[in-house]
Design goal:
Number of helices: 0
Helix content: under 10%
Low-confidence stretches: none
Largest sheet: 7 strands, antiparallel
Number of domains: 1
Shape: globular
Strand order of the largest sheet: 3-2-6-5-4-1-7
CATH architecture: Roll
Distance between the termini: 16 Å
Radius of gyration: 13 Å
Strand content: 35-45%
CATH class: Mainly Beta
């Protein structure tokens, strides 16, 4: 099984989790709407259980891979779906 993301990948929040956990030394649960759906961030770490540390404009958060999708730029075409 391949990893869905690599460090440094640009990702987009595709749906809002009920709560979002900060990636601080002492993590806190925050409201899920703190980061808007469609916000883009950079993958900074992979964590156990399918969670990724994502650096958004609002800060760094631990996000389950089910809430993320790889973002594409205009210069980079979207990967075709099989």
């Amino acid at each position: 099984m391949t990893q869905p993301f690599l460090m440094g990948d640009l990702v987009r929040l595709k749906s809002a989790p009920p709560y979002i956990k900060t990636a601080d030394t002492m993590p806190m649960l925050r409201p899920g709407d703190l980061v808007a759906v469609g916000s883009e961030g950079v993958v900074t770490a992979q964590n156990p259980g399918g969670y990724w540390t994502i650096k958004f404009d609002q800060g760094s958060f631990l996000v389950d891979s089910g809430y993320l999708e790889k973002a594409t730029t205009e210069a980079e075409p979207a990967e075709p779906k099989p």
